[in-house]
Amino acid sequence: MSFDWDAEEDDFFAGPSVRSRQAVDEDFPIPDDFADPVPGFGDPIGLIPQDTAEETNFQQLIRHWMNERHSPDILPGQEVLLGNLLDHIRKQTDDVQLLRADPGSSEDEHFRIMLVHTEIERVKFVIRSYIRTRLHKIEKYARHINSDPNMYERLSKAEFEHAKRYARLEETHYTSSVLQSLPIDQQGLDDNIAFMPPMIPAPSKTRAVFVHARQDCPRVKLLDGSMMEMKKDQISLVPYNVIEHLLARGEVELV
Amino acid sequence: MVLPAHLKNNLMPSEIKFIAENELITILPRYSMKKIELIGTTIPALRGMRRERVPIWVALILKSQDKCNIVPPEWMNVAYLKEKYEDELKTPYRFSDLPSNWIEVSKILLTKAADDLADPSHQLRSIIQDLREIRLVKSRRGLKELNESNIELLGLSLLEINELRPFVLTVMNKLRQLHDTVKPEDDSTNANNYEDSDEDEDMDN
């Protein structure tokens, strides 16, 4: 992978707004300073209090992966989580390589190496799928991302750069292939024409999603004005904007 | 392009199986192995004939090399599933409380570890098929309740949700579009309200 996650994390945390968001996202009931990235900040497993240790990094990633797959909108990126997992993968891969190179290792050891290797591939699979899902949405909504400052803080620096470049390419392509031969007043790419769908596609937040309540949730208001209360483990089909804030707090997950 | 079209709106059954494989299952090892620290979990030290809980994917590798027997979960037997089937018949509007990945886990065990199961696999397959069918009928009947705003489901497994998803989401989105068109004046005020309430929520955070 060509990303340098460590370098990216530092940049990513330059803005304070991201930090508080991260703390909320991880729904760890732990002091804020935990979310502060210390240079060389390694595997946090030992630091997590007992009650949240049940959900490992990998399980968190699977949850965020599923959320991202089902959500119509782009969710805040899980930079810290990915960084930790990638560090861990690197470490495990090095160990595997080292053990493989050792001619004296027994058959039992080979079996153990195979298990470790299998797991590395499983984690990589989820990471790839997660990143590709995000990339897909980023490309789809590249021009929207460029026009809406609220989207910036949900993306990593690399993702944001990609969105900018992609939007520029798209616009150049439209202009050079079609628009330049049209009259000037028909060349716009962001005109707001009454009774027409907007020219910049934005995520449709009213799309329905299946949500699973991870805990008892506060009541939410539905489209028709009535209230809905979700008990733990309840699964509902609701429009995305109804549960958007619950998802951001990690109280529900998409399934 | 980044995400193949068949992955865009739904999960693949293979992905659901992948998720289910991370669940823990009890095994009876026939092999000793030292503890292994993995990224997502830890495989405990294995010793012959001492029960341990490991992720299903580990159990399957061990099983394929004849290094363990899998202890099937307590719901994975004909008597229990029959009981659940009776429950399904008695309560036409509710789903019985099977584990949320019962289809995936039972499928994995039936194909990879049939000899470890308590009952003959053809009986298990047939009762599982019965259960699946009655639940499918129920969930289809439940679709009558479908409207533009919300629907509550209890006890459906991930795979069952996945089967419903393409149809249900399309219908619900169309219904909502229709609903919004019928009441254009409500629509504009509604839209504004939602924007506002979303922002309020954000600030509360």
UniProtKB/TrEMBL annotation, chain A:
<keyword id="KW-0539">Nucleus</keyword>
<dbReference type="InterPro" id="IPR021151">
    <property type="entry name" value="GINS_A"/>
</dbReference>
<keyword id="KW-0235">DNA replication</keyword>
<dbReference type="InterPro" id="IPR008591">
    <property type="entry name" value="GINS_Sld5"/>
</dbReference>
<feature type="domain" description="GINS subunit">
    <location>
        <begin position="94"/>
        <end position="174"/>
    </location>
</feature>
<dbReference type="GO" id="GO:0006261">
    <property type="term" value="P:DNA-templated DNA replication"/>
</dbReference>
<protein>
    <recommendedName>
        <fullName>DNA replication complex GINS protein SLD5</fullName>
    </recommendedName>
</protein>
<dbReference type="InterPro" id="IPR031633">
    <property type="entry name" value="SLD5_C"/>
</dbReference>
<dbReference type="GO" id="GO:0000811">
    <property type="term" value="C:GINS complex"/>
</dbReference>
<dbReference type="GO" id="GO:0000727">
    <property type="term" value="P:double-strand break repair via break-induced replication"/>
</dbReference>
<dbReference type="Pfam" id="PF16922">
    <property type="entry name" value="SLD5_C"/>
</dbReference>
<dbReference type="Pfam" id="PF05916">
    <property type="entry name" value="Sld5"/>
</dbReference>
<dbReference type="InterPro" id="IPR036224">
    <property type="entry name" value="GINS_bundle-like_dom_sf"/>
</dbReference>
<comment type="similarity">
    <text>Belongs to the GINS4/SLD5 family.</text>
</comment>
<feature type="domain" description="DNA replication complex GINS protein SLD5 C-terminal">
    <location>
        <begin position="207"/>
        <end position="255"/>
    </location>
</feature>
<dbReference type="InterPro" id="IPR038749">
    <property type="entry name" value="Sld5_GINS_A"/>
</dbReference>
UniProtKB/TrEMBL annotation, chain B:
<dbReference type="GO" id="GO:0006260">
    <property type="term" value="P:DNA replication"/>
</dbReference>
<feature type="domain" description="GINS subunit">
    <location>
        <begin position="75"/>
        <end position="178"/>
    </location>
</feature>
<dbReference type="InterPro" id="IPR056784">
    <property type="entry name" value="PSF2_N"/>
</dbReference>
<dbReference type="GO" id="GO:0000727">
    <property type="term" value="P:double-strand break repair via break-induced replication"/>
</dbReference>
<dbReference type="InterPro" id="IPR007257">
    <property type="entry name" value="GINS_Psf2"/>
</dbReference>
<dbReference type="InterPro" id="IPR036224">
    <property type="entry name" value="GINS_bundle-like_dom_sf"/>
</dbReference>
<dbReference type="GO" id="GO:0007059">
    <property type="term" value="P:chromosome segregation"/>
</dbReference>
<feature type="region of interest" description="Disordered">
    <location>
        <begin position="182"/>
        <end position="205"/>
    </location>
</feature>
<feature type="compositionally biased region" description="Acidic residues">
    <location>
        <begin position="195"/>
        <end position="205"/>
    </location>
</feature>
<dbReference type="Pfam" id="PF05916">
    <property type="entry name" value="Sld5"/>
</dbReference>
<keyword id="KW-0235">DNA replication</keyword>
<dbReference type="InterPro" id="IPR021151">
    <property type="entry name" value="GINS_A"/>
</dbReference>
<protein>
    <recommendedName>
        <fullName>DNA replication complex GINS protein PSF2</fullName>
    </recommendedName>
</protein>
<keyword id="KW-0159">Chromosome partition</keyword>
<comment type="similarity">
    <text>Belongs to the GINS2/PSF2 family.</text>
</comment>
<dbReference type="GO" id="GO:0000811">
    <property type="term" value="C:GINS complex"/>
</dbReference>
<comment type="subunit">
    <text>Component of the GINS complex.</text>
</comment>
<keyword id="KW-0539">Nucleus</keyword>
<dbReference type="Pfam" id="PF25005">
    <property type="entry name" value="PSF2_N"/>
</dbReference>
<feature type="domain" description="DNA replication complex GINS protein PSF2 N-terminal">
    <location>
        <begin position="13"/>
        <end position="71"/>
    </location>
</feature>
